[in-house]
Amino acid sequence: MSRQTVELEIFRYNPETDSEPGLQHYRVPYHKDWLVLDAINYVKDHLDRTLSYRWSCHMAVCGSCGMMINGEPTLSCKAFVRDYPEVIRIEPLANFPVQRDLMVDQDDFLAKLESIKPYIIDVDEHPLSEGEKSQTPAQLAAFKQYTGCINCLLCYAACPQYSLAAGFIGPAALTLAYRYNQDSRDHGFAERESVVGSNDGVWQCSFVGACSEVCPKGVDPAAAIQQGKIASAAHYFKQHLMPWSKS
Amino acid sequence: MNEGPWIHRISRRQWWFGASRYRRYMMRELTSLFLGTYAITLLVGLWRLSQGAEAFNAWLAAMHSPPGVVFSVLMLMAALYHSTTWFNVTPKAMALRFGAYKLPDAIIIGAHYGAWLLVSVGVYLFFRS
Amino acid sequence: MASNKPFFWVLFAAGGTLAALLAPVLILLTGLAIPFGWLAPEALAYQRVSAVLDSEPVALALLLVIALLLWHAAHRLRVTAHDLGWFADSVAAGLFYGIALIGTIASVWLLV
Questions:
Q1: Which residues of chain A lie closer than 8 angstroms to C3, CB-CB?
Q2: Which candidate from B12, B13, B46 shows the least CB-CB separation from C107?
Q3: CA distances from A104 to A108, A152, A214, B63, C22 (A)
Q4: Would an 8 Å CB–CB cutoff place C51 in contact with chain A?
């Protein structure tokens, strides 16, 4: 007998009215080509209009719909209902304060993103009359992979170091720092180093690798951070062994 | 209505018992305990060596006793797990590029296993000679 | 705020690579080869070991193996102590790096 329905166990919490969170059960129709996001939309449209969650593109490029699905940080628009058992537990992303139901407060991440200066830091003025700055394929290859981050925060939800030490800058922000440090047009390594090379920066990472395992875009933040450690260590030794050199 | 926001965090004491990837991580990290113990074992052997033949032979006898062998087997298993996990992640820390071409992970990993084989055979032959 | 971790991390990385390449064969040779009969007992006889370690390159190699293995384990265990929340980071660092330092000094003293 083929499956007719799926049961969703969804985390519900309204801090203004509830003293504590709870799980609410909804039974939705089973369609073999549905994503978990489709099932959640069905709940909102037909069963419970009060359910709050974020989503947008429905195709894994906007990074809005990240949530814990059966304990694993996942984009709900990238998870097929058919790949899950009869009951699917849906909770907000771990390690972030819950605003309501499946929505989390991203302020901590956004502050950290800003702290690593995610923009080209240049030393010279380049007037428009000089035209665009060119890069060779090799120069592009040095950082291109790390431009793919969609800020979905799955890596933060998976990272035990972020859970244990809330000051940790975190995978996505450190990867973006590395992206800019590797960009040949950028000269901001030293400026970023006070954050990136601090105990809250790359050095809090213990290479668990969970971030890269859950990343839906194949950015491989773990690799960026390990390579970032090498860069930071080289800078550290250069500063201590050759303090006269300008870095 | 309540103090502070609600956050799901991992349990400080037990998080590494949870998802299988966390358990594997902890196993990998704990291999260093065995490696450190082996280093201390060698250090003790050196110390016994400095005390003369009798002391050194006593150390050898302890190493090669049944409990010593079991201990070495455990250390070997930990060392092997360390080696494999270490080589498998080396490409993440080492991005070797020639222009826009990035050396595939498999080649970097393969080169390390090759070096491992060469070094192991070399050391073994050195011991035998 | 600058970190002191890069220093220990480089030792950790060097020790980890050395351990990955050498630890299995060394454990095999010192602990298992003779009991299992793959190597004659004479290979680790007192006279032979003393003679081999008289050679400076060999002694230096052994010193590096012991020291780097200790620093590798020290850094990893320091981080693991933090992961498990067993003690404060400064206590863990002092304890584990302290052991590694004592071990390093001891091996220098014994081998030189």
A1: 197-199, 201, 203
A2: B46
A3: 11, 11, 18, 56, 48
A4: no
Among left, alpha and beta (phi > 0; psi -120 to 50; other), residue B101 is beta
Q: Which domains does chain A have, with CATH numbers?
A: 5-104 (3.10.20.30), 107-241 (1.10.1060.10)
Tokens in use for A22? 């709870």
What does the block give as tokens for A236? 């550290």
Q: Say which residue the tokens 């003025």 belong to.
A: A125
All domains of chain B in start order, with CATH: 16-75 (1.20.1300.10)
Contact C82, C61 (CB under 8 A): no
Task: Report the number of distinct structural domains present in chain C.
Answer: 1
If residue B63 lies in a helix (H) or strand (E), which one and from where to where?
A: helix B53-63
Q: What is the DSSP string of A26-55?
A: EEEE--TT-BHHHHHHHIIIII-TT-----
Tell me which chain C residues have a C-beta less than 8 angstroms from the C-beta of A194.
1-2
Tell the residue number behind the tokens 């719909």, with chain if given: A65
pLDDT per residue as tens digits for the range C33-72: 999 999 888 889 999 999 999 999 999 999 999 999 999 9
CB contact under 8 A, C6 and A229: yes
Q: Are A185 and A119 in contact (CB under 8 A)?
A: no
Residue C3 binned pLDDT confidence (cut-offs 50, 70, 90): confident
Looking at the predicted structure, is the pLDDT value of residue C90 above 60? yes
Check which CATH number belongs to the domain holding C75 and give it.
Answer: 1.20.1300.10
Residues 6 or more apart in contact with residue A81 via CB below 8 angstroms = A6, A30, A31, A32, A34, A35, A36, A38, A39, A88
ipTM confidence score: 0.94
Q: What are the tokens at B62?
A: 């302890």
Q: Considering only CB atoms, which chain A residues are within 8 Å of C16?
A: none
The strand pair at A87-91 and A66-69 is best described as antiparallel
* Helix (H) / strand (E) containing A89: strand A87-91
Using CB atoms, list chains with 3+ pairs below 8 Å to chain B.
A, C
Interchain pair C66, B83: CB under 8 A? no
Cα gap A118→C74, rounded to integer Å: 35
